[in-house]
Amino acid sequence: MDATFITSAFKEDQYPAPNMPEIAFAGRSNVGKSSLINVLLNRKNLARTSSTPGRTQSINYFCLDQSLYFVDLPGYGFARVPVKVKESWQGMVETYLRTRGSSTLKAVV
Fold this sequence. Notes:
It is a single chain. The protein is an alpha/beta fold. The protein is built from 2 helices and 5 strands. It has helices spanning 33-40, 83-99, and strands at 3-9, 22-25, 59-64, 68-72, 105-108. Strands 1-3-4-2-5 form a 5-stranded mixed sheet.
């Protein structure tokens, strides 16, 4: 399987065109969302990981075989970052989930 990092997005206008299905990975900070993506794609360091909660601070897109996106979302909950940063992550994730219609967003894991 060919998997590549495509982009990091902080705002809706930075998302890739909705021309492929997307599977988003959501959950609490530091539960292993990025690690799960790496395991599923059999790639050790494609999605950046860290033992520090809050490492993923943007919406990260990974393309699989030019036919599907895995989308790594920032975590929620415990992270050693200012409250304003956590609030920006919440808004970022809410906007992503609200604006990616069912024709694009196929599942949230």
